[in-house]
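=== RUN LOG ===
request id: a7f3
mode: sequence -> structure
chains: 1
length: 344
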Amino acid sequence: MERFNYFVRRILLVIPTFLGITVLCFTVCQFVPGGPVEQAIAQMRGAGGRGGMASATMSASQIEAIKKHYGFDQPIPVRYWRWLGPGRMGLALDSFRYTHKTVWQLIAERFPISLTFGISGFVLTYLICVPLGIAKALRNGAAFDVSTSVVVFVLYAIPAFAFGMLLKIFFAGTVDGFWTLFPIGGFRSENWEQLGFLDRVKDQALHMFLPVLCYVIGNFAILTLLMKNSLLEQIGQDYVRTVLAKGGTMQRAVWLHALRNALIPIATGIGGILSIMFAGSVLIERVFAIPGIGMLSLDAIITRDYTVFMGVIALQSLVYLAGRILSDFCYVLIDPRINFAGEA
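=== RESULT ===
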């Protein structure tokens, strides 16, 4: 019953948390210069810029008409309510930049791309890092542990986007004298629709290999060392020594007892499976010219397309908050002894 009440409280807490995030972001957007009103004024004058100085030669009535067209004639609370309620978190509103397209239509176009990279990166990260962390813990201090630690820390020291640029240099033919094994960028080839099934699979795999590798590198070191240290901590517990004292082998103590408890900290990241639709780095998407959600957000910021930016922020906030609840649920599945009354 305590667990049920805890999850109910967490779900109810999503509402004020979401409102707090969106109110703050929405308010900041209203004061950032170069918004749609300034852009419209500049276009009417033929200036082509976004500066507020364009308003100097226009009448007050003209400026008010432009503000009314974009809804900036109302107080911020009214604008926020129109965005949240009738605008359905801005998803039903039109983009300022992309004419005749709503925010949801733009997000839906990028969603499959981000989802594909998100699932691939998420699954590969756990499939590689968790077994590697276990192997390092079982061979703690051995040559395997030391050598893999060197590799892990070297990769951790390289930013993911810089690693992507190196991969393009060595394997995408951006510099003469190196291999041209993979495409320079993009999600698929332009003639992808005309390819056969096997050729489509090959083309998709070639376009995804380097970016997904960069996604994995981003969390590689943290997850590997977290798994290793968590398992080492459990191996040093009294219950493991008790198993060994009763004649059990180390393998039995680890695989049947310690491993399950060691997975509890790893469960923190399981909630990220809900946010994989927004996964990835904006810089990685820019390096590989991937038209995903990250690039959509960056373009919205650069062009001051507030409706698109706020729509992405709203969805990201909801899935992140839901992911935190899912992580707590995973805790309970891994260790049923856990309760949320401060006792275990």
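=== NOTES ===
The chain has 13 helices and no strands.
The domain at 110-334 is CATH 1.10.3720.10 (MetI-like fold).
=== END ===
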